[in-house]
Amino acid sequence: MSSLTTYDPLDPATLANPYPVLAELRSSTPVFWHEGMRSWALTRYSDCVAVLRDHVRFARDRRRTGAAVSEPSLSVQSLDPPEQFPVRSLFMNALRAQDLDAIGRRARSLLDARFDQLADRAEFDVMAEVAAPLSVAVISDLLGVDEPDVDSFVSISDAIMRSMDAGLDPAVAEPGRMARRELSALVESWFRTSGRPGLLSHVREHAKGSSDTDLDLYVRNTARVMFQGGYSTMVAAVGNAVHTLLRHPNALDRMRDSAVLRTGVDELVRFDGPVQGTSRIATAPVEVGGVTVNTGETVLILFAAANHDPAQFADPEQLLLDRLPNRHLGYGWGTHSCIGTVAAQTTLRALISSLLENPTRLHAASPPVRRNTATMRAFDLLPATFCP
Ligand code: HEM
User: Fold this and answer.
1) Would you say the CB of residue 277 lies under 6 angstroms from ligand 1?
2) Predicted TM-score of the model (pTM)
């Protein structure tokens, strides 16, 4: 078990269940300096929200504190207001123009067909055989692009996902850079063709003729972030949700009630969500939770800790599928909050509905294997089987 002074998110016990050590940290040293990550880590909900709200004193864009950022990294995710505003609103408006119910229906038929194929298997891996193909299909459908080959896309995405922990393990940085180049080539191929209707064609149509010369670059980079970021969080969210349901045998049936299905998919993300944290950099000396953060220092917002903070959530360790309100940080908060939230909720509802309508029941099989990544909480392997 990680001790509080050597908190290691990659410690096997912490990977298996990060919430007890985060709870200890929250009550003993809610804001603590993590030497390995050279960051102030925040564990209280109120401190996390205060930082996420304050994009003036806490930058996402590293250029605001003098760092260099390469061109391919400039996207909705790395820019701050006011520069971020036109690109974020382009993508948000394009998303609102999509028929998400239709995307949900297509996700549901894909799942029904897949579960039929898996019905007689003694054991299958939910990650490789359900979560990955489902997530590639949904994101391609949403963006309006041809589905890439699932296996090759999964290896690109995995290298990028692992490189998010480069602060903890520098060896993962270079494979991540190479995978980003491969992904860029795929995204550029979408921009060479006219493409079918979807989010991307809407964005391209509405970005045309803009006087902002950087907008085209930001749009291409954001398309890449949406595809890869959307895929990797979706895959991880599906795995974590299935795992939680397998450990709470009555939970699935509770979601036959449509109101509980609606609140339940959010509670699954609060309870064990995929994105464990994010970071910002102080642009001025600023006090957070009784600690002074100096200009240029990094602040780590631990969503996983905030989402289990008893000051915000009654019985945080309980899965309460009808929890309302549930202002969790699983999709972030503020100007960088998730653009794909509604698409993600739609996909998770399709998953639950398909499992509920299945004549057989999903059961855990061999022990699952957690992925050795800290920023993204996911499974490498999640074996399951359908039994009557
Ligand atoms: C259950 C699935 C998902 C979860 C839990 C999730 C979570 C998050 C979180 C926590 C952030 C904020 C990160 C930060 O503040 O640094 C974020 C941002 C983002 N998400 Fe998601 N996400 C999910 C699915 C998706 C999907 C399906 C898409 C795309 C179709 C998507 C696209 C994005 C984008 C583009 C951003 C960056 C927004 C910005 O910086 O302005 N996400 N997501």
Assistant:
1) no
2) 0.96
